[in-house]
Amino acid sequence: MRKMVQGTEHEYTLYCRKMGSLGFDPHTLALDLLRESDLHLAGEFTTNGSRAYYDVGHFELSTAETSNFHDLVVWEKAGEKILDWLRRVMEEKYLVAGAKIHAFKNNTSPDGTSYGSHENYCVSRSVAFPQRFVRELVPHLATRFIYTGAGDIIDGKYVLSPSAYLTSTVVSGETMHDTGILNTRDEPHADGRSYRRLHVIVGDALMNETAILLRHFATSAILQLMEDGQLEDVPRLKDPIRDLWHNVETRNPEQWKVELEDGSTVSPIDVQRYFLGKIETIVEDHREKRALRLLEEVLDDLEHKRSKDAARRVEWLDRYFAIQEASEKDGGPEVEMMACKQYSEIGVERSLFYRRQRAGLVDRTTDDEAIKEAIREPPADTRAKLRREICDTFNIEMIDWSVVVVNDGTRRRIELLDPYATKLEAAYVDAS
């Protein structure tokens, strides 16, 4: 597989009853602490190439540009750890002993409020948009949640994917209301003549490393296959929204169904097996082959209802088990909702997910040492590394993903239009 620059954005929720009563917003306080720390690079950027900012009442963190699905997992988890460190600092500095700040990586609140967890892929501008994306990518996005869904309780019922459940149309430019399977936002953050930033919003905030990896492995591989013209025989879905809504509320794989344009009915697993076969033709190294085997094993486990095996890698299923275990001790809707949300806490001492990870109930794809290094350092093979070097070398007047203005007496504007550039020679420099 070719390199493909990709990243994620997450709106995290921070909650503390005591801080609210004092007029403090933990989201903005966390950002202030981050910008006063040695993890701050310049502007809204951190030393590891990520960007942290305030967005619609949340602390949002966008990962640095990564070039592959494996690194994406590492830098996304590093973002979690950065926010968890800020949470602990706030508890120690601003709260009395015993008071807590809770940090959640999810998509909905108990009051029904939803917020974003988005993916970004740097794709070729040569692929017709949105026509070919609707025809070739939507079948994947409309069915992948069977293994990428995070699970959640919404409207009093358990759904496999909160984002899929709240999706209302096939194509949309909206990101908060009337959201679509395919989003039309066009902000390339690169040379717009060559690249498009595909903004995927029909995805969930995930805790499970394998689920994150498979989501990006499959989606980036399918985007490469699209660029290579290898998906002309893709299954055509007759009504993806209707089937999305049916399947997202169904936990039994035997009841999953998708109607094709020719009138036949198949399972979302069948659609994903089509993509699996296509992906197999382009995998090369051991990581890609391992990811392919993982995806095949997950589809097999789901199809044959090997729930305990699948739950090690499929988050909606493991969360469901965690909720059921909590309700067995003290049943009721409030207990179930509390367990559902506690699963997504990022504090390892409070999170149901991390408790289950420590117990060996979920699989991992990386390790703590790699994540620890990624907290401070950017990926070595993307623009994030070059942006870090520029900031370490010059005084910075302005910084964004694809441009840096340095103040060295000339106010040079450095255009970082190539997301794969790692050397300054590849950047466009304008002295003004």
Provide the number of structural domains. Answer: 2
Principal-axes shape call? globular
CATH topology title of the largest domain: Creatine Kinase, Chain A, domain 2
Return the CATH architecture of the largest domain: 2-Layer Sandwich
Structural class: alpha+beta
CATH class descriptor of the largest domain: Alpha Beta
Strand content: 15-25%
Give the N-terminus to C-terminus distance in angstroms. Answer: 40 Å
Q: What is the average per-residue confidence, as pLDDT, rounded to a whole number?
A: 94
Helical fraction: 40-55%
Instruction: From the alpha carbons, calculate the radius of gyration and give it in angstroms.
Output: 21 Å
Which segments are poorly predicted (pLDDT under 50) over 5 or more consecutive residues?
A: none
Q: How many H/I helices?
A: 16
The number of E-state strands comes to: 18
Biggest pleated-sheet summary: 6 strands, antiparallel
Q: How would you characterize this protein structure?
A:
The protein has 432 residues and is α+β, with helices and mostly antiparallel strands. It has 2 domains: 6-373, Creatine Kinase, Chain A, domain 2; 382-431. Helices cover 41% and strands 18% of the residues. The chain is built from 16 helices and 18 strands. The strands form 6 sheets. Strands 1, 4, 5, 6, 7 and 12 form a 6-stranded antiparallel β-sheet that branches. It has a 4-stranded antiparallel β-sheet with strand order 15-16-17-18, covered by helices on one side. The protein has a two-stranded antiparallel ribbon with strand order 2-3. Strand 8 and strand 9 (157-159) form a beta hairpin. The chain is globular and about 65 Å long. The two termini are 40 Å apart.
